[in-house]
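Morning run. Coffee first, then this:
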Amino acid sequence: MRMLSEEETETERDQEEIISSYERVCHMVSNNAVVIFSVSSCCMCHVIKRLLIGLGVGPTVYELDQEHAGREIQAVLARLLAASSPGVIGSQCPVPVVFVGGKLLGGVEKVMACHINGSLVPLLKQAGALWL
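And here it is:
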């Protein structure tokens, strides 16, 4: 029987925390038409919240700086964003992150691009977040 080193045990614990946080994120986004992961002091998060509210959406907002597992959730979001946008450098703060209909839409750049090209409102309607 092989004994695990402290480093290997710590790595396993980190992986378990990531899996647990990933499952938590999946649960958080599955119950709402639109979910925004935000940080209360982030100006771009404020912009996205104002945009969606201005369109008539009532998003569920999770302020990660006020969540118990906010850092772990932020790490999961960073991985999800990196996986969905392989060409984008992941060094920036991974908020805001927007999910529509339980699916990752993206960060501020993606949301604004969808708004500008006219695809955001149809996505919101399809998810049941808008009725107009």
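The first strand starts at residue 34 and ends at 38. Good start to the day.
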